[in-house]
Specification:
alpha/beta, 39% helix, Rossmann fold, single chain, 17 strands
């Protein structure tokens, strides 16, 4: 199968490309420079440009590109970058696949659990409405930007991804060094739920979305049982054999992170109802399993 992927150099994209190529699939990477071969397609999301000709023959397009949510403090300028990097890129790619004489059979367009906002102790699945605030509004608009692909009759899936447990990036990419040094601890009171997913399961789930014709619309990509930050802290200590004595008070986080602290301290207890109903099996469903798996990621 010929599959195009944006965001192929990120934590998830790198692992997905490696997995697909290992199984003999032809992967075409979207790059922000002139293409250097048949396995690359030039695009410029800021200019809403995609070389659609490079997508000819692709049976699937997986869109993972976007500025990192936790890479910078949420200034007005960076919030604008977060929106534009998602909305412009998604819209351009959706229009490109819709313009093809023979479009791909599936467009997997990334989203996030930020869609649901604060859920507290309440378990939510894909039927839940969007929450309030910057991230939910961003996720709603992000998914709506894929409308051209849906209107063209292309099966469009929105993987709403949770916190990916991997050493190469994201929240856990920052946490592993701290916990290995014995400096890890809970954030705030630690009661907030974290909906996590092992990197291995994230990649397997994305491939499941590509292959499963019955799936379209939002699909939560998170382990079956979310855990609290306090439980995450204890699991990191157990697996890494390190003390977890330190704690970061909520006021300090709000000073250091600004508006983004609400995302860190917020609680999201999200379950993958549609993924499980479609027959997907998690290889690393528990937080301990996911952390151990991350230690063996390439």
């Amino acid at each position: 199968m010929r599959i195009a992927i944006s965001g192929s150099t990120g934590l998830i994209g790198t692992a997905l490309v490696r997995s697909l190529r290992a199984d003999g699939h032809e992967v075409v990477r979207l790059v922000r420079r002139p293409a250097r071969g048949g396995d690359e397609v030039t695009w410029d999301p800021k200019r809403s440009y995609v070389d659609a000709g490079g997508l000819i023959g692709c049976e699937a397009v997986v869109h993972l590109a976007g500025a990192g949510i936790g890479d910078h403090r949420w200034t007005d300028a960076y919030k604008k970058e977060l929106r534009e990097s998602r909305l412009l890129g998604t819209g351009a790619l959706a229009e490109a696949v819709a313009s093809l004489d023979v479009p791909p059979r599936v467009f997997v367009s990334g989203s996030a659990l930020g869609f649901y906002g604060e859920t507290g102790d309440r378990r939510v699945d894909e039927e839940a409405p969007p929450g309030d605030g910057f991230l939910p509004e961003l996720c709603v608009d992000w998914e709506e930007a894929a409308t051209p692909a849906e209107e063209a009759g292309i099966r469009t899936v929105f993987p709403r991804t949770g916190l990916v447990v991997g050493r190469g990036g994201g929240a856990w990419g920052r946490m592993f060094p701290l916990f290995k040094a014995g400096l890890g601890g809970r954030l705030g009171d630690g009661r907030q739920y974290w909906s996590f997913i092992a990197l291995h399961d994230e990649v397997a789930a994305l491939r499941h979305l590509i292959d499963t014709e019955s799936l379209s619309g939002p699909v939560n990509l998170t382990a079956p049982e979310p855990v609290t930050n306090r439980e995450v802290t204890a699991a990191m200590g157990r697996v890494l054999h390190r003390p977890t004595l330190f704690a970061v008070p909520a006021p300090a986080l709000r000073i250091a992170l600004g508006e983004m602290a609400g995302d860190v301290l917020g609680s999201q207890r999200v379950v993958p109802q549609r993924l499980l109903e479609s027959g997907f099996t998690f290889a690393f469903p528990s937080i301990d399993d996911a952390i151990r798996a991350a230690l063996h990621d390439d």
